[in-house]
Design a protein that fits this description.
The protein contains 6 helices and 6 strands. With about 190 residues, the chain is an alpha+beta fold. The strands form 2 sheets. It has a 4-stranded mixed sheet with strand order 3-5-6-4, sandwiched between helices. Strands 1-2 form a two-stranded antiparallel ribbon.
Amino acid sequence: MVKRYVSVTILAVFLALTAAIVVVSALDTTTKTADAASYVTVRGCTGTNINLTTTEYRSLYLHNQARARSGLPGFCVHPSLQNAARAHSAEMISKDYFSHNSYNKKTFSNRLKRYGYTPLPNRYWTVGENIAYNSTSGTASADKVQSQWMNSTGHRANILNKNFRQIGIGAVYGNYKGYNVTMWTADFGMR
């Protein structure tokens, strides 16, 4: 009887240790997942996967929600527009300026072409851009800037333009003019 008791005890200890290792492994996975969760992968207009920050993803959601309320189709994320929008927001932070034109004074349409968003042969091409900055960060920043844009006639017109079907959203947090801000660029297009 003692031998069986010892065997059961050893088995119980082994199972408890195994369970403890599984719990620790799960905690490590949760930590890694939380770090990885700062990006959301979406299927882009070209069929490729595009990683958006959770802030950019929130902005995409809010854009598409506004369009749905107006009976318009949602935007899909175009990789060229996404790269151009992020680069412009980052440049405005790093060069400490705020403009639709790039730091080298080129227009936003020239910037979009430089990032590969060019007119297709014999096709209609139209583009637009919204920019903004605010003192909040994270998804709260997306809600705040969307409210600002929807309360501005020109910005709202871009968001609800039925001709625009593709978007790129760049949200970059950094120091602008001595203040910590989120710098926003939303590039719109159809080609």
